[in-house]
Design a protein that fits this description.
The chain is of the alpha/beta class. The protein has three domains: 12-58, Orthogonal Bundle (434 Repressor (Amino-terminal Domain)); 73-170 and 303-328, Response regulator (Rossmann fold, 3-Layer(aba) Sandwich); 172-299, Response regulator (Rossmann fold), CATH 3.40.50.2300. Helix content is 40%, strand content 14%. The chain has helices at 12-19, 23-31, 42-55, 61-66, 88-103, 119-127, 143-149, 172-185, 201-216, 234-240, 256-268, 302-317, and strands spanning 73-77, 107-111, 133-136, 155-158, 167-170, 190-194, 220-224, 250-253, 278-280, 297-299, 325-328, 331-333. The strands form three sheets. The protein has a six-stranded parallel β-sheet, with helices on one face. It has a four-stranded parallel β-sheet with strand order 7-6-8-9. Helix 5 packs across helix 12 (302-317). The longest helix is centred in the first third of the chain and has 16 residues, at 88-103. The chain is elongated.
């Protein structure tokens, strides 16, 4: 079987050769600027452009960056190895980023964080000139953050604020206070709070504000961490199998995605929501197919977070200054689970 040869990527030299000019003339013709006093006639410029089109030549992104020009590409890096496009949070963020990039005539490049790559390799992929700026969803204790802080690359963080990086967040503390006050008004005294495994700034803010408000309202709170996929931990199952008078009357989930998993888990255990126990979440994500109820939650405007993040990043790329943290308001959404 004949082995296929890999196609040669056309270069500036190829364009010059086809157009019958030298490389400097071809570069000046395509870049629209003079170099070392080189002047290009309209006829020569047209010939060079036609040669570039015929060869399918496109300028290298890194070469553009070295010349101080824009690639018109914005990057998105979450720090997580896999981004589930079906996850409502991820989908909302990505949709918002793409929609706003379109307004600014920018392309969006999504980066992954792979375990086989070292921190230096991940960092190099972010700052190698492919992108003009980066939208970052930080993860706790991410080593690449230290390098990004020292880099030339304009960066905007979302959801979890990072010191010395401009961030777009939601008002996590107010959201948790609203939940605690609502549950107190409903007469709940004993609460199970399902916390996050990671030490994200946003989730720590949520938990701290909820515990402070609950304490002020004379409510008792047990804090647990379920399984990483949101399923109940055996210790939590033991709590829920306690006599009705001894167990919590409501479960607070730090995030909606885990609250929806919890609703299914409770159904398997034969525990009715909200008759036997109430459930509330945080994020305001609505899942239509399942379960057949509306979750009481706090709406966080993640679509607006993404849009504003792109706007602020474009300002940074232009050399303008932006606020250290832009915090968007949240609102309590009444459902039928609490």
């Amino acid at each position: 079987m004949k082995k296929l040869r890999k196609k040669h990527k056309p270069s500036m030299s190829d364009v010059a050769r086809l157009a019958g000019v030298n490389r400097v003339t071809a570069s000046v013709a395509l870049n629209g600027s003079s170099k070392a006093g080189t002047r290009v006639s309209d006829a020569t410029r047209r010939r060079v452009i036609e040669a570039a089109k015929a060869l399918g030549y496109t300028p290298n992104a890194i070469a553009l960056a070295l010349r101080g020009e824009r690639t018109n590409i914005i990057g998105y890096f979450s720090g997580y190895e896999f981004q589930d496009a079906h996850d409502p949070f991820n989908a909302t963020i990505l949709n918002g980023l793409q929609r706003r990039c379109q307004v600014h005539r920018q392309d969006l490049l999504i980066f992954g964080s792979y375990q086989r790559n070292s921190v230096d390799e991940v960092y190099a992929s972010l700052v190698n000139g492919k992108i003009d700026g980066l939208i970052l969803l930080p993860t706790p204790h991410s080593p690449v953050l230290d390098q990004l802080l020292q880099s030339h690359l304009p960066v905007i963080a979302i959801a979890n604020p990072i010191q010395n990086i401009p961030s777009v967040t939601v008002d996590d503390r107010t959201g948790s206070r609203l939940l605690a006050e609502y549950l107190a008004q409903k007469g709940h005294k004993h609460i199970l709070y399902r916390a996050d495994f990671g030490e994200h700034t946003s989730t720590l803010r949520r938990q701290e504000a909820f515990l402070e408000t609950a304490a002020a309202l004379k409510m008792t709170v047990e804090v647990t961490c379920g399984e990483k996929n949101g399923q109940l931990h055996p210790d939590e199952i033991d709590i829920l199998r306690s006599p009705m008078e001894a167990r919590p009357s409501v479960i607070v989930s730090w995030v909606d995605s885990h609250a929806y998993v919890l609703l299914e888990e409770l159904q398997k255990l034969g525990i009715r929501v909200p008759d036997d126990i109430a459930v509330v979440g945080f994020d305001g994500i609505r899942l239509k197919p399942r379960p057949f109820c509306t979750l009481t939650s706090v709406r966080a405007p993640w679509d607006e977070v993404a849009v504003i993040a792109v706007d602020l990043l474009m300002k940074l790329i232009e050399g303008d200054k932006v606020e250290q943290e832009t915090m968007l308001p949240v609102e309590l959404l009444m459902g039928d689970t609490a």
